[in-house]
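Today's session is about reading a structure prediction critically. Students often jump straight to the picture, but the first step is always the sequence itself: look for stretches that repeat, for charged clusters, for runs of hydrophobic residues. Only then move on to the predicted structure, which in these notes is written as discrete structure tokens rather than atom positions. Here is the chain we will use throughout the hour.
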Amino acid sequence: MNLQFHRAGGVLANLPLLRIERAGPVLHLRLMRPAKRNALNDELIAQLHTAFLHLPESARVAVISGEGEHFCAGLDLSDLSERSVAEGIAHSRRWHAAFDQIQFGRVPVIAVLHGAVVGGGLELASAAHLRVAERSAFYALPEGQRGIFVGGGGAARLPRLMGVARMTDLMLTGRVLDAEEAQTAGLSHYLVGEGEGLVRAFALAEKVAANAPLSNYAVMQALPRIAELPQAEGLFVEALMSAIAQGDEAAKERVRAFLDKRAAKVSKS
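Below is the predicted structure for this chain, in token form.
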């Protein structure tokens, strides 16, 4: 891995709760509230939204991690104020807008998980496309014990990863999953040793960035939507997306390279 990171400029340089660096096509966003275990307050949510709305044109993949000992301990309860129902809905929808921009934005996103991945932190992680967990990672949804309910998209995203039954267990009992249990439950794609998360994530990022942009876009945008459609409609959308991707010049060149034996074949190594 030969990535050399430098601080991002422009709008991305003026988001004090995020440290954003670039290395070629890879953008690294680091949550910068370590004293609060990177808990999410309104300002950090707004800055995440802004960052993903203003990704550099050269960015092909983004990596999210947390500074310090934890990825993200969820909602900063000190930021929680008494709200009316209407205010509560508006607050939740701001989180939805930020996390939707991560999941359905312009580039694939890889989350590096260590320490606490709790509440809103787990909701944030679930918006990423790939999740690399270190063995220190632990997962919980303590909203049920706080007298509240998930509000950052967890009720929509997490059942698709771990199932309704497992999510129900976490919310009703306050159960905490360790890294291996969460890997088995489907909350992470890769489980690595302590301190190895970013190395694996950057290696994955380089692979993802090397794909044809339209192919990555189809995986991000079309695949989750097709999965929600009845089979007949899903197959039709798949056919449309497949034809669009195949018609892209980058795809045609990659197929030619394979046929001309200029591209590597799939192997176990």
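Discussion point for the tutorial: The CA atoms of residues 76 and 109 lie 23 Å apart.
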